[in-house]
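It is worth pausing here to work through a concrete case rather than discussing structure prediction in the abstract. The textbook approach is simple: state the sequence, then state the predicted structure, then interpret. We follow exactly that order.
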Amino acid sequence: QVQLVESGGGLVQAGGSLRLSCAASGGTFSTYPMGWFRQAPGKEREFVAAISRGGGVTYYSVSVKGRFTISRDNAKNTVYLQMNSLKPEDAAVYYCAAKGSDSQREYDYWGQGTQVTVSS
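Step two, the predicted structure:
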């Protein structure tokens, strides 16, 4: 069983930056592809970014590509999401997630989320 704990959310002005962290425990972190998702009030949860086990392959949604960067440090059992040029529409609860293999569509483990608020 993998436990995921996000941190780093907060209030930021439009155009600003935040770095989210997600610390993993209870499993072999380096074997899990990881992802970040977000959910705004009244909206469905949406994919933001994903990273392969070793960190060499990354994926982004169109809405964040070029502004957000996902990375991981397997020695620290942590995945990060660097968010730059934030927009009000980026405001949401951000969740990190882990899945057992690259071929899986669904993620198996989820964190509790961290709130990101962007003021205009």
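Step three, interpretation. The chain has a mean pLDDT of 96. The chain is about 0% helix and 50% strand.
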